[in-house]
Task: inverse folding
């Protein structure tokens, strides 16, 4: 379980005197206090309306508003994410000022109240938990490679010095690789993105699939939201490739877990180019 793994990692990080790791682990265990979260916690939520009967419906607003409010920083602790991931979806409210404005607008237009909410799938929440576990595992393997093993969770002065000479960056890593550096060394990680041809091709594949293929309703809604994001970025004079990459990851998860078949085969080459 991620929370148990993190607690053990917290003990190790504190005994080794690595404050940057202690801060990251504490935030994962307790939750983040602001929207300044690691990249893997920035997800593409579905911006929906919740009526008085508890039904989720498409919120009547512009694509620009959907784009703005769909980008979501997940601040929950790992234990809360684990509980939420047991459900198919999790509903997050929006700030009160935004709720009041959109609810009033919906009432004036349709005659009934509809609260704007953000909706995350269990797949997205599990993805965050997997990223956390992977980062802890990579750190543990790095310690092992450097011979920092500890005896009964006790570390020698030499082991502490070895670790403290490293520079670990867990929270600001956008890929799956932990950034680890030491004095006089460099580390690089290949970043993909910026492939406008792949972006255009993926948009076309998704558009045709949503129109023609039989896709489960929930998966269709997720793909439609992702398609809207890609179209908005493609039309922008300055596309945000971080958003495009996150959306591509969301699409890949939907295809792997809910759709599959011909659509996955068609989309995969373009998704790979964008990830």
Result:
């Amino acid at each position: 379980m991620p929370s148990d793994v993190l607690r053990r990692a917290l003990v190790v990080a504190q005994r080794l005197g690595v404050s940057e790791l202690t801060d990251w682990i504490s935030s994962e265990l307790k939750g983040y206090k602001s929207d300044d979260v690691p990249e893997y916690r920035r997800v593409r939520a579905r911006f929906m309306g919740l009526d008085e009967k508890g039904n989720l419906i498409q919120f009547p607003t512009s694509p620009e508003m959907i784009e703005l409010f769909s980008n979501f920083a997940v601040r929950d602790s790992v234990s809360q994410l684990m509980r939420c991931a047991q459900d198919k979806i999790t509903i997050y409210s929006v700030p009160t000022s935004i709720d009041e404005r959109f609810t009033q607008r919906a009432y004036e237009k349709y005659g009934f109240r509809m609260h704007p909410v953000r909706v995350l799938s269990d797949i997205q929440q599990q993805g965050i938990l997997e990223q956390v576990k992977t980062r802890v595992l990579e750190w543990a393997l790095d310690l092992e490679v450097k011979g920092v093993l500890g005896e009964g969770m006790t570390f020698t002065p030499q082991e502490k010095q070895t670790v403290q000479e490293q520079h670990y960056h867990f929270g600001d890593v956008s890929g799956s690789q932990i950034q680890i550096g030491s004095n006089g060394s460099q580390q690089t990680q290949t970043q993909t993105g910026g492939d406008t041809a792949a972006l255009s091709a993926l948009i076309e594949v998704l558009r045709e699939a949503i129109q023609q293929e039989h896709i489960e309703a929930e998966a269709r809604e997720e793909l439609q939201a992702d398609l809207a994001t890609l179209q908005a970025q493609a039309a922008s004079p300055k596309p945000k490739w971080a958003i495009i990459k996150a959306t591509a990851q969301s699409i890949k998860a939907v295809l792997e877990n809910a759709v599959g078949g011909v659509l996955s085969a068609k989309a995969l080459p373009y998704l790979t180019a964008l990830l």
